[in-house]
Amino acid sequence: MAQEKVVGIDLGTTNSLVAYMQDDVPVVIPGEDGSNLVPSVVALAADGRIAVGNVARTHLIDAPDRAVYSAKRLMGRGMEDVQSELQFFPFRLAKDLAPGEVLRIQLGEREFTPPEISAYILRQLKQNAERYFGPGSSVTKAVVTVPAYFNDAQRQATKDAGRIAGLDVLRLVNEPTAAALAYGLDKQKAGIVAVYDLGGGTFDVSILKLQDGIFEVIATNGDTHLGGDDIDNLLIAIALDDIAGDLKLDLRHNGEAVQAIRKAVIDAKIALSSQQQTTLDVNLPGGEHYQRTITREQFEQLIAPVIERTIAPCRMAIKDAGITSAQIEEVVLVGGSTRIPRVRALVEEVFELPSRGRKPHTELNPDEVVALGAAVQAKILAGGSAATEDMLLLDVTPLSLGIEALGGVVARIIQRNSTIPASATEHFTTGVDGQTNVAIHVLQGEREMAKDCRSLARFDLKGIPPMTAGMPRIEVKFLIDANGILHVSAHEQRSGKQAEIEVKPTYGLTDEQVETMILDSFDNAEEDFRQRQLVEARNEAETILTLVERAPSNPAWKLLEPEEYLRIAHRKAELEAVYKGDDYRAIRNAIEALDKATRHFAELQMDTAVSSAIKGKTMQTANENLGEGPTAPHPIAPAEIETQER
Amino acid sequence: MTQTAEQSVIAACWACGTENPPGAHICASCGKLLASDSRDYFDFFGLPHRLTLDIAALEKQFYRLSRKLHPDLFAQASKQEQQWSLEKSSILNDAYRTLRDPIARTEYLLETQGIRLEEQSRDATDAARAAGTAKQQVVPPDMLEEVFGLNMQLEEARMAAASNMQDPQLIADLEAAEKNFTAQMDALQQQLESLWAAWDTALINNDTAAKDDAKQKMVALLNRRSYIRNLVRDVQQALGR
Q1: What tens digit of pLDDT does each residue of B181-228 get?
Q2: Which residues of chain A are within 8 Å of residue B36 when distances are taken between CB atoms?
Q3: What strands lie across the sheet with A474-480, from one edge to the other?
Q4: Do A211 and B96 lie within an 8 Å CB cutoff?
Q5: Which of A373-377, B64-68, B136-140 has the lowest mean pLDDT?
Q6: Catalytic residue (one of A130, A152, A160, A197)
């Protein structure tokens, strides 16, 4: 039987890719536009359609409030975590977010959680693969890569994104490990290898031991908020300062201008990897023009504080691996930011390569190597082939797992860099006679106090048989699976009863929430949206038509000019003609036209209502004549119409 | 207590019914993955409960078992097999991590012998942390004098650090102390290895008295080691490392 096609996906901060093992060689699958990279940008177009990738990127400049990029930075995180991000990224979060809640990003008039945004990107990649495999093919299984240093919540959010996109995520693979797989494919090597992965938004370093096809990760470290984005933000801040100083223009809150500057600094950054100097050149709103020459030397000085933040994680990984840098035989560079010459020089220093006559590996395209490795792992999971025979990945958990003990301290139960799957068994008891619940707080991180670690979940062990305090012996098993995701099970040993566990993930979606978010096939989602728009537009049309129908009975009606009666009748007829049709945009336009035509009437009506109130009628009865309160489309609130409809 | 009950089960293969010896991971007849029946780390690797271990051989066996048990090999298998693979590989990884480390291995063996190493136990650490006090440890009697002198020096070092003073003599003393304790740690490692040999021999001869003697000596040694390790940590902290 033919193997089911399993694809490998690199869901990146800046760009995403899908790859497949074609005749024992991993290849990147291009999109319809021929490009291997799908920019990780999602936009809500004015017509309500979702745009992804290069198409969405145009929206970033035209309508920045309807597009989002780098949403990976928000995966599995809460309000408290992202405050520093908000200073640099134009993320518009929903106003009514509560602490501990999954974030929601505002795009135009709609809101999306980060896993939903990622799901749109995954769905695009899925479609690209289906298109590549030919008519009628369906791709439902994938390996998706994540930064090695992603915590449980971030991993869970990535898996949720897969489910929402209609993909069964067979495995989450750490990005540096995937890169090592891609490199290891054509060289049956033995020895110790380091992978330095500086991407758009995350930094990872992993140290692996290669032997007879086994890729054993021995240590990993990183920073999930360090990458090319940080370099861009630094350059943008300088440009904005310059503009404020020289041109007396404060553009910090001008989304459009900031996007234009962002594009220019990225171009400059890329240019400086091959040139000694370049010119930043941006057209600003209001016809102003910003220009600045920047040399590579200046650029390197500027970015030094950012890229030097990668040194400590490298040292820590080497220390945790129990080796010296001299024992590392090869260093593989991954991620677009490793194209910067200064970054390469830094890697050579940290791993002492020049003194040993070595160079870091850059043979594979640093943007594509992670996706290629994911395709290799996908092949292994699909059942393997001659090329992947004997290949096996043994990865580790990047962060220690602990539980909150007395006094808010963390008791570690699984150490960081433990090979996964890994497990730990703990025993709990009750403190009060007859107690039937025990609360357990699970944390991830290396700090001593619970408040300094990442809260993963609070578990409630329920249904403990009532006994004297200290008598129940509840065994709780913590198991980290091969995806780096935690599972918990428990049973009370004296009664043999399975204790019930209620998981309250911190910043995670519940199963039910994910269910409701699952995207139908592309066409359905669009059709659904159109349908909803149509229903809403028809409802509004009916409301306004009813109001206009009733208008002649209102005293204010008599105050209108003859040509106004004519215009209203005309617009009303137009709306009546289209509102049974299924073009919601035509209906909206007709509503707007009728609204405009009746504006004067609405104003007169307000005046009349006020004077009738003075005559002894209550405002209440006056209002009843006016319509249905603030949700009615227009006649009582003429001033709101403009903003409401645009 | 519950462990011994589990171990005695002879596994009949769920797929073909063949009876496999206890601790078998794969059915000898049909090659299917068997349900987990052993949680003991030594049993899992098919090893006797001896402490002298060939680490290179252990690694080989770890890789060999990983190739049979890892969840990657069961991505297309039934949910039940996936669950077994997950459980088995987690025990495999936990066991390998414990057995390859000399101290963790010794502690694990002592635990399987029903000994709770109170001083190193996390309960004791947690209780001490919660109470905000340093963990109370019994000072090995022959070290009393040495530790008394060291504590004075550590106190001096703290005061010097607080007032930003540099006392070259004090630093030299602390460095000497660090060297001394590190040497003691190395010596303990040597002693531990001879205790392993004593345990292994007693186990082979099924000599209960010799086993108990070796156990007690190992407990004493581990406590002493943990005490010295904390001293090294304190000295290094005082030296600002």
Answers
A1: 889 889 999 999 999 999 999 999 999 999 999 998 998 898 888 888
A2: none
A3: A422-428, A474-480, A486-492
A4: no
A5: B136-140
A6: A197
Question: How far, in Å, are A102, A233, A420 from residue A90 at the CA level?
Answer: 18, 11, 37
User: What would the pLDDT profile of A185-211 be if each residue is shown by its tens digit?
Assistant: 665 678 899 999 998 888 999 999 998
How far apart are the CA of A423 and the nearest CA of chain B, in angstroms?
Answer: 6
What totals of helices (H) and strands (E) does chain A contain, helices first?
18, 26
Disruptive mutation site among B58, B83, B93 for chain A (greatest number of A CBs within 10 Å): B93
Return the pLDDT at A508.
75
Collect all residues of chain A within an 8 Å Cβ-Cβ radius of residue B6.
none
Question: In this complex, how many residue pairs, one in chain A and one in chain B, have their CB atoms less than 8 Å apart?
Answer: 74
Q: Is A175 a catalytic residue?
A: yes
DSSP letter, residue A3 = P
Q: Are B135 and B237 in contact (CB under 8 A)?
A: no
Average pLDDT over residues A579-594: 88
Structure tokens at A483: 């995806």
B240, β-bridge pairs: none
| Composition of chain B by helix, strand, coil, percent to 5 | 70, 0, 30
**Is A513 or A176 the better-scoring residue by pLDDT?**
A176
**Which residue from A439, A455, A454 is spatially nearest to A502, judged by alpha carbons?**
A439
Please provide the distance, in angstroms rounded to a whole number, between the alpha carbons at the two ends of chain B: 44
Q: Is the pLDDT of residue A621 over 50?
A: no
| A639 burial level (CB within 10 Å; 0-12, 13-18, 19+) | exposed
Are A392 and B67 within 8 A, CB to CB? yes
User: Which position has the higher pLDDT, B38 or B230?
Assistant: B230
A522-541 confidence digits (pLDDT tens): 445 566 667 777 888 888 89
Tokens for A210?
A: 């290669």
Nearest 10 degrees: CA dihedral of A359, A362, A363, A366?
Answer: 170
> Has A197 been annotated as catalytic?
yes
ipTM of the complex: 0.82
Take residue A455 and report the two structure tokens written for it. Answer: 């809260």
Cis omega (within 30 of 0) for bond into B48 = no
Residue A313 C-alpha, separation from nearest chain B C-alpha, in angstroms:
18
pTM: 0.78
pLDDT at B3 over 60: no
Pair of tokens at residue A332: 């593989």
Q: Is A186 a catalytic residue?
A: no
Q: Annotated catalytic residue: which of A152, A160, A175, A368?
A: A175
- Cα A159 from Cα A108, distance rounded (Å): 26
What pLDDT sits at residue A384? 85
Contacts of B41 in chain A (CB under 8 A): none
Interface test with B, best of A392, A400, A452 (most B CBs within 10 A): A392
| Residue of A421, A422, A423 with shortest CB distance to B71 | A421
Q: What tokens appear for A380 in the block?
A: 């292994």
Query: CA of B162, closest CA in chain A: separation in Å?
Result: 24
Cross-chain CB nearest to A407 (options B63, B122, B129): B129
d(CA A638, CA A622): 17
User: Can you give the pLDDT at residue A255?
Assistant: 76
